[in-house]
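Render this sequence as a predicted structure.
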Amino acid sequence: MFRKTSGAILCPSCGRLTNADAPVCLVCGRRNPGMWGFAGAFRKVFGPRSYTQTITVVCIVLYLVSLVFDPAGALRPRGPFDIFSPSGAALDALGMTGAHAWYRGQWWTLFTSIYLHGSLLHILFNVLWIRQLGPAVEDLYGSARFFVIFTAAGVAGFVVSNVLSGYPTVGASGSIFGLLGAIVAFGRKRGGAFGAMVLRQYGQWALILFLMGLFMGGMVNNIAHAGGFVGGFLAGLVMSLAEHRAETTGDRMLASLCAVMTVAAFGLALWTAFAG
């Protein structure tokens, strides 16, 4: 039912037609393109998709979970910018990162904090930026590579923040700056008039957003923003562009590893909160 051991299939590496039982792809030379008959099923599970939409849904769902986790804390009267803000206890249980978690060896908070948000305005602005930049990075690099960049940038931002600041922090803004960094990397790699235009436009966006963060002071984690931008830029330099090479099984497996690590991180966070 799930296996296809004969006939034509799409090669997991180059996406061209080849034979399921061929020892090597007839186009790119990949060995065992049929993957013992499971190449088609693998492409359906880990094939191209909109990770932007998935990340948006996950962020919103986890924000609602954080409110339900401690409704009394979420409804506690605060300032106008903190309306419907999850309590610190709820965010800590779900995997907020910072010096306390860092020195307890809770490495998984580097992944979980990407999808947690501290207020309604916080998640609103971050979701808007994810939906603004995500599709562009997916088009430039491919969906799987986009998710790898998003994850790597978020982790890099929180590592830098934990080392240099240690202040408890959550949010996808480090990953968002990483998306900007990846687009800047694309402009540099692409070259020419188009590459220069992309480099100039998105470089200016990154600079403006970073300066806005400096003016907002302690309300935003500028250190995580800077670390995320550098992480996304470096990941963008390493990743192949979609126009140069189609996504391969290796790219999809790396994206799947990021997803597995993220799910496992939330499992560890909940295990630590309730059984630790």
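Summary. The chain has a mean pLDDT of 85. The first strand starts at residue 8 and ends at 10.
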